[in-house]
Amino acid sequence: MSSRLVSEGVFDAESRRVATAQVAAGLAIVIVVTIPMLLFDAPTSLHVAETLLLLVVLGVGYLTARAAQASVLRSVLYLVAVLLVVAGVLVIKALVGH
User: Fold this and answer.
1) pLDDT grade, residue 3 (50/70/90)?
2) What is the pTM of this model?
């Protein structure tokens, strides 16, 4: 859907490739977070799934930074910044009771 919005409603070959990649990535994430639910009890599976999702975000962030020609150091510093933002969000969620 976002591919159509970006390409002004035209669903050309590039838009189809982007849409296919989005659907495939979404399915991969569903599988990644479903597996812990099948293997562990409720509280443990939640922590494992959250950790796996964080690792996916960090991995994609690192690869994106490296693809943008950032140095290894700068890419790692970017990941530290992402971790700090995630920690801040989690602290705020804990404080408001979510």
Assistant:
1) low
2) 0.72
